[in-house]
Amino acid sequence: MLAWFTRWKTPNMVLTMLKLVFLVMIAVFPSFGAAQEQPSAADIAKIEQTMAKWLAHPMEYGVAPKRIKYFATVRAKLPDEGASTDVQIVEYEMPDGTYGRGLVNPLTWSFLGSVPYDALGNEGLVTAYAGWLWLFPALNDGRATIVFEPTTLQRLLKQLAREGITDVTVVSQYKVKTSELFEFEGVRNGVKIRGAGSAGSKLIFDATAPQASLPVVYTYLAKVIRGEI
pLDDT value at position 81? Predict the structure, then answer.
């Protein structure tokens, strides 16, 4: 294409052709260059109210937020939702100064604790939410359990050792039907790591990575659900 453009002698003619190419791409690929649709003012008010009500629940903070504001919408593949779904992110500040970003639709939720939201990004936050969205109900309805005698853990530990990961500590374990997966911490080349998965399928981050600020099992599960692992 660049060679073809050399036939055009003036910058204005080149710019005109580039604009035409861009317009064709938009016509052929409607999502190309398209911004996420902003919810209406009424929808934003409802989203904010939903998050505020969740935060004020006795099992959460137990008080209304000091400040709450719609932040962004992210379209994501979620478990059991079929097509991609719009997930709304809401930022809030509690009376004690705690800052957070919660998620609304299909379930309202916020990860507690210190989360580097800007470094993690909206996509990273929604990815972890997608994994939580599968695991939390599964633990409640019995599809998954944390109480079992693992039979595949040693395979995972041996594989981690072969990959140079030492001082491994299993943080949590889960069993889904006959599959076992583990969340773990360890050291690789003198650097602390956090990971989740099994001997045949796992996800590992440096402990300082933004994704490691939340349970890695959530991001791992989301990537499995999306077919990325």
Answer: 63
CB-CB neighbours of 100 under 10 Å: 20
Contact 126, 81 (CB under 8 A): no
| Tokens 């050291």 -> residue | 187
Average pLDDT, the chain: 86
Question: How is residue 75 written in tokens?
Answer: 């379209």
Residue 192 bridge partners (DSSP): 187
Quickly list DSSP for 173-222: EEEETTEEEEEEEEEETTEEEEEEEETTEEEEEETTSGGGGS-HHHHHHH
Partners of 217 in the β-ladder: none
Calculate ∠ Cα 117-120-122, nearest 5°: 80
C-alpha pair distances (Å), 96 with each of 36, 61, 99: 33, 10, 9
- Sequence length of the chain is 229
Please give the Cα distance from 168 to 158 (Å, whole number): 10
Residue 147 and residue 156: Cα distance in Å, rounded?
Answer: 18
The SS3 call for residue 56 is coil
Instruction: Report DSSP state, residue 39.
Output: P
pLDDT tens string 205-229: 999 999 999 999 999 999 998 899 8
In the chain, which stretches have pLDDT less than 70? 1-36, 81-82
